[in-house]
Hints:
Layout: H1 20-33, H2 40-44, H3 51-54, E1 86-89, H4 91-94, E2 100-104, H5 115-128, E3 138-142, H6 146-158, E4 161-167, H7 172-181, E5 188-191, H8 198-208, E6 214-216, H9 223-245, E7 252-259, H10 269-276, E8 279-285, H11 290-293, E9 320-324, H12 326-337, H13 339-347, H14 352-356, H15 363-379, E10 385-391, H16 399-410, H17 416-427, E11 435-437, H18 440-457, H19 462-467, H20 471-477, H21 480-496
Amino acid sequence: MTALPSIPEGFGLETEVVDAVARDRAVQQCRQAGIRLPAFAELANPPAPDRASAAVGPDDADAANLWRVNWFNDASRAGRAEVPEHVVIPPALSGVDSPIIMLLGNRFPMIGAHKVLAAYCCLAPRLVTGQFDPTRNRAVWPSTGNYARGGIAISKIMGCRGVAVLPEGMSAERFEWLDRWTSDPSDVIRTPGSESNVKEIYDACAALAADEANVILNQFCEYGNHLGHVTATAAAVERVFEHYTAGHPSARLAGFVAASGSAGTLGAGDPLKERHGSAPAVVEALECPTLLYNGYGEHNIQGIGDKHVPLIHNVTNTDVVVAVSDRATDELGLLFSSSEGRALLARKGVGAEVIEHLDDLGLSSVCNLLASAKTAAALGCSPDDVIVTVATDGAALYRSEQAKTLSTAFGGEFGSTEAAEVAERWLSDVDTEHVLKLSDRDRDRVFNLGYFTWVEQQGVDLAHFDARRDQSFWLALRDLVPVWDELIADFNARIAR
């Protein structure tokens, strides 16, 4: 195993059992709940479900749903798909010649979003190394919504107490879900602001950390988040791309696009770049262009955290930064869900199969679609150049936001005239405005911007912060995965005794 440089305590990167008593309590807890933990390799290549687990509902707090925390669930979210569910966006919708393939995150269990993968990958290594005792510790999940929900779901299955920390301005559907899945109102902490207010989340977590029973699983600096996507999401993208090339043998993987958020999903871009030469592109809101312009502001593209550079963002391996306006995502979300908008898209030549998938696209998913088109244009992609991105969640999480947009932007009316105006505004031309292909100097600028959050505010060791500049750091991180998988196998063997 390659030696990891400058890894301080507190990041959950242990490769040995640090507290056998806590580990054994976790084993006992999992034995009583009938839990067996999937390894990282099994998240990337999941085994076929057995008959008993197939009978478990995808929204149940049941151990069987840990085995659905992967990209290979079918549309029912209870069965297994040979190829991860996805939609190929045609030029009639995207406005570019390059095909855009979107993997569908609302196929994940319990929360209908792929962030439950990150939550599991942050907690599992801590469980099997004795860093988290489910009988004594509380799992604190700071987020702008979906990761916190994923953490609460995983916590409930594990029989431990989970705490969601998220901005009060997030969609009503997020809080309605949390009300159903938590038993104590104090386990949902609403911080000031909205999507852009990540610092306020950190401040709330700092206060919670004063109680040693609370374990902060901060997705923005948890390398398990990064490694889960390096392992599972990259494998899913490659399986989808392999499926696509069966009918398009001249296709090449030109780019992988993901919103900044916690930067976890972006991690999949690293192995894809190594194996396919694809360009990793990071997306942010134009109203808060932190990476692009060192800017700030507020926005409503829920699923993107900003005003900082996540510690787990491999900045020096990122090739493109692109910004998308929340006005575009709000209005297109309404267009995609309305009968008038869908009729308009059909007249423009968008096929029925694609239109049926529009409900699979939430606000950040629409953002990723628009950013993928801008990335394809900026890279000069051809019809053989494929851009892959993820639909992080579906439209069902944003019906309340659509109602707000309908009221504030359109006076409560959205007919054929409004649909045509929205389509003309956001889908008629694809420009490369607010897109930057990163030079080495640009990468250094963005990397350095993270210093103020992580070293000055959060107290991260400077040697550790700087070590992340070199790709050897990120490559060495991957050596943790087989070690963790061995620990998970040992953990499961102890459960079975």
